[in-house]
């Protein structure tokens, strides 16, 4: 089991480099089926034989979501300086509803639960209904950007996004950043909600690694309107890198 978890995090790191390859060749939803690390990392939300990459555009994405996706996706392309080509430090992270085909987890999980487990933010099948998002990371700058379009199933106050849904996404974005160099868990998350997010709207979530002290990673996150003029939410988080046995209840 510990080995499987290790594969999960290695796989997550692989995704960073794989995503660049995919973004260059997608028709929408196409995913290389040749990579064994990808095949082993996801189960299907639908009856397709390939893992479904939720981070690629679908018809529910509005113009702002598409525009921002294209903006950041174009930054992931290979940069050319004169004759020289160099890999961009931006990568799009593919998004699956499962990180491993066969879940691993605490020793208390039954096989039945494990087989049904799904990533919280990727378990709504109807396009546009829940969390529509795509993550981009800049490894050099230790920065993560998420473009989020919040669907109608995320309602909290009438017509606006639930604070828990916003917290979920902040945890996801900061968590991705903190996990780039290995397994990490949220120890602390502080959120200031500054202005409500209308349902159906698109927001930009930017996360930075502020400080690293041993196992501790201090990460901040800001949620704004696409043009950056409206601040919706601010957060700081503490992540602790963990030994994978920690998740095995040992
Ligand atoms: C790749 C997929 C992308 C998806 C991303 C999704 C990301 C989602 C991330 C999550 O949601 S994780 C789930 C929510 N988090 C948890 O369930 C964590 C539950 N808590 C724990 O498991 C442990 O408390 C934890 C691993 C966080 C820390 O336990 P440890 O035993 O490893 O640490 P320890 O208690 O020894 O503390 C180590 C240091 O951290 C400090 N510390 C620990 N918890 C703290 C806290 N809450 N606030 C401030 N400091 C804290 C602690 O004081 C100490 O400081 P010093 O070294 O300076 O003495």
Descriptive report:
The chain has 250 residues and is α+β, with helices and mostly antiparallel strands. Helix content is 25%, strand content 27%. The chain has five helices and nine strands, in the order H-H-H-E-E-E-H-E-E-H-E-E-E-E. The strands form two sheets. A seven-stranded antiparallel beta sheet has the order 3-4-5-7-8-9-6, with helices on both faces. Strands 1-2 form a two-stranded antiparallel ribbon. Strand 4 and strand 5 form a beta hairpin. The longest helix is centred in the first third of the chain and has 24 residues, at 2-25. The radius of gyration is 18 Å and the shape is globular. Mean pLDDT is 81; it is low at 14-48. Decanoyl-CoA is lined by residues 12, 171-172, 175-176, 179, 185-188, 216, 238, 240, 242, 246.
How is this fold's topology laid out?
Layout: H1 2-25, H2 36-39, H3 63-75, E1 79-81, E2 84-86, E3 90-93, H4 111-116, E4 131-138, E5 143-150, H5 163-178, E6 184-193, E7 202-213, E8 216-224, E9 231-241
This protein binds decanoyl-CoA.
Decanoyl-CoA (MFK) binds at residues 12, 171-172, 175-176, 179, 185-188, 216, 238, 240, 242, 246.
């Amino acid at each position: 089991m510990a080995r499987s978890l290790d594969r999960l995090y290695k796989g997550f790191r692989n995704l960073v480099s794989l995503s660049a390859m995919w973004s260059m060749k997608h028709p929408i939803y196409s995913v290389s089926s040749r990579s064994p690390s990808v095949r082993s990392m996801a189960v299907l939300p639908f009856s397709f034989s390939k893992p479904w990459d939720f981070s690629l555009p679908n018809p529910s994405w509005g113009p702002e979501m598409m525009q921002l996706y294209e903006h950041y996706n174009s930054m992931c392309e290979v940069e050319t300086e004169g004759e020289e080509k160099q890999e961009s430090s931006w990568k799009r992270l593919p998004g699956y509803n499962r990180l491993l085909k066969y879940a691993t987890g605490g020793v208390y999980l039954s096989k039945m639960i494990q087989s049904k487990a799904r990533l919280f933010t990727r378990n709504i099948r109807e396009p546009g209904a829940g969390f529509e998002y795509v993550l981009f990371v800049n490894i050099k700058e230790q920065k993560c950007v998420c473009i989020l379009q919040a669907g109608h199933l995320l309602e909290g106050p009438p017509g606006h996004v639930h604070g828990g849904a916003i917290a979920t996404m902040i945890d996801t974005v900061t968590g991705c950043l903190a996990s780039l160099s290995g397994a990490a868990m949220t120890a602390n998350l502080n959120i200031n909600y500054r202005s409500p997010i209308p349902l159906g709207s698109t927001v930009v979530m930017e996360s930075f690694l502020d400080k690293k002290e041993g196992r501790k990673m201090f990460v901040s996150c800001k949620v704004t309107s696409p043009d950056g003029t409206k601040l919706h939410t601010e957060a700081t988080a503490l992540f602790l890198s963990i030994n994978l046995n920690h998740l095995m209840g040992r």
